[in-house]
Amino acid sequence: MFKYYLKKTLRNRGFLFWSLIFPLALMTFMKIAFGGLYDMQNSIDPMKAVIVDNGSGAFSENFISLMDQLSDKSGDNYYFDLTTYEDLDEAKASLEEKENEVLFEITDEDTINIYLMPGHSVTSSCVSKAVCDSYMRNYQFLMDAFTMDPEGARKILDNMADGISYTKEKENAFSSDPDSYSWYYYSTLVMGIFLSATSGVEIVSDLRADVSSEAMRLSVSSSNKSRMMINSFLARFIPSIVIVLIQLTVMHYAIGVSMGNEIGKLILFVISCIMFSLGFGVICGLLFKGSANTRGNKTTAVVMISVFLSGEMTSQLPGVFEKYFPIINDINPATLMNMAFYRFTVCGDDLGFYMNIGKITGLSVLFLLIGIFALRREKYASL
Q: Which residues form the domain of 76?
């Protein structure tokens, strides 16, 4: 019986298209459309900068040393393409002629004036201001420290020179680079999993005599109804597992989307979501009327509405709902699955992940129990 149901599943072109081909095609189009866009938007090209040193002493020397570090092409913090000018007017002229983008003037009052070329970018103004503000704060802090505790200030300088840090970032705060565009890939994967609900509808059509002629013949057979249900479920569950593994492989190796760093959670997520999708399809198959195709089409419509509300087209949509109508996120299946996946692949949020998986698993068990109870009664009620 399992072999029969498995062949039937694999011959279902609609199931294979919506669960496997359509999500992969959509991911491919997204890769073409905005692949690498996140890195482009968040990268900082080195800015042509010029320094005019009208200062003296430690303030001037330390700032020039800092700028030399930020201009080191071999380092990780290569932000400026630095040039030194002796004359301030000449340096300002280079801004007007757009030969340089940023001008730092070190004054004899231990301050730094910033000049920007006409039509400068927002990035250049923000980065140059941040560098100067940070330097001024640190310099003032050290001067105050030398005044109050010279020995302690020297230890701070020695530690800074040795690269010693007294702060420690939280490990696994992010499981991967928080690329905002990854949401669309995750949502597309969830959409493919959720479309397995149409296969859940087929479980109902396999066993309800009022839906298909095959089920009518099986209803009067001597086959054990519980065994038929298990075989029908496994014949849909196993292909769905294989399909998701194919999609995950393509996402990770061909498209370069992070899958997180914990394989156990990934397996738990896949199994839970497929069980939920099949269970959801069983419930839709029981509730909707008409032929198997009609019930499948209605289920597809419900799934696509859920996927849209989860942010498949607009990633900001769940955030809007969370602010004004949080109940929508709480009851929308696609959002629960999306957030579970996002929380462990990107955020490393164990509590949030397990809470979402708990909801999904609980609903899966409920749906499948309802399906088992309803379908076991169909042997005689449907005739």
A: 45-148
Confidence (pTM) = 0.64
Task: Give the tens place of pLDDT for each residue, 10-57.
Answer: 888 888 888 889 999 988 887 777 655 444 444 556 888 999 998 878
Least confident of 92-96, 279-283, 324-328, 374-378: 374-378
Query: Would strands 102-106 and 47-53 be described as parallel, antiparallel, or unpaired?
Result: parallel
- In whole angstroms, give the CA distance from residue 44 to residue 180: 18
Model confidence pLDDT, tens digit, residues 206-217:
777 566 656 555
| Structural domain count, the chain | 2
> Hey, CA dihedral for 150, 154, 160, 163, is it positive or negative?
negative
Asked whether residue 291 is assigned to any structural domain, the reply reads yes
Residue 320 lies in a domain: yes
81 shares its domain with 200? no
Task: Determine the average pLDDT of the residues in 155-161.
Answer: 54
313 is a domain residue = yes
Asked if 123 and 85 sit in the same domain, the reply is yes
Q: Which residues pair with 106 in a beta bridge?
A: 53, 112
Please classify residue 288 by burial: count the beta carbons closer than 10 Å to its beta carbon, then call 0-12 exposed, 13-18 middle and 19+ buried: middle
